[in-house]
Amino acid sequence: MKKKILGLHYAIRGIVICSKTERNMKIHLFFALTVLVYAYYRDLVLWKWALLIMTISLVLITEMINTAVESAVDLCTLDDHPLAQKAKDVAAGAVLLAALNAIIMGMVIFFI
Ligand SMILES: Nc1ncnc2c1ncn2[C@@H]1O[C@H](COP(=O)(O)OP(=O)(O)OP(=O)(O)O)[C@@H](O)[C@H]1O
């Protein structure tokens, strides 16, 4: 039980560290909060709220995984290496896909 609580503590610490240290994460959080406030005043139906929460989560989760990949790669090597480049580019690509998805979902949620 204590181990599980400790695991949760580390996970929350991961979210806090990423939010405090990563510029992109701060930008995502700012937009997420803005959209959530806007959605509150638009009085969305339940399925649109679900879609909005999933969309925002996807962006934040991919940004956190991207940060983890960048940190792990930098820990392995600070030299230029094609595999380091591949790992970072693929992780960044995942964030880009999530962001593009968020734009499309935003249009579906707020304009349809
Ligand atoms: N060790 C490396 N070897 C080869 N290419 C690298 C290496 N480190 C970074 N790169 C290239 O530079 C790009 C930017 O890497 P960087 O670590 O600066 O991340 P970033 O995209 O600036 O992220 P952030 O702004 O979140 O720090 C990578 O996507 C990759 O193409």
TrEMBL record:
Q: Which CDD domains does the entry mention?
A: UDPK_IM_like (cd14265)
* GO molecular-function term, one example from the UniProt record: ATP binding
GO CC annotations, alphabetized: plasma membrane
Subcellular location(s): the record lists: Cell membrane
Q: Could you say which cofactors this protein requires? A: Mg(2+)
Query: Record's PROSITE patterns?
Result: DAGK_PROKAR (PS01069)
* Active site feature: 63 (proton acceptor)
Where does the sequence pass through the membrane?
A: 47-69, 90-111
Give the co-factor note.
Mn(2+), Zn(2+), Cd(2+) and Co(2+) support activity to lesser extents.
- Residues at which a divalent metal cation binds: 22, 70
Ranges in coiled-coil conformation: none
Record-annotated residues binding ATP?
10, 22, 70, 88-89
Q: How does it sit in the membrane?
A: Multi-pass membrane protein
Q: Which GO terms describe its biological process?
A: phospholipid biosynthetic process
Question: Where along the chain is substrate bound?
Answer: 63
* Main localization, broad class: membrane
The UniProt keywords, alphabetically, are: ATP-binding, Cell membrane, Kinase, Lipid biosynthesis, Lipid metabolism, Magnesium, Membrane, Metal-binding, Nucleotide-binding, Phospholipid biosynthesis, Phospholipid metabolism, Transferase, Transmembrane, Transmembrane helix
Q: Which family does it belong to?
A: Belongs to the bacterial diacylglycerol kinase family.
What protein am I looking at? Diacylglycerol kinase
**Organism name:** Thermanaerosceptrum fracticalcis
Organism ancestry: Bacteria, Bacillati, Bacillota, Clostridia, Eubacteriales
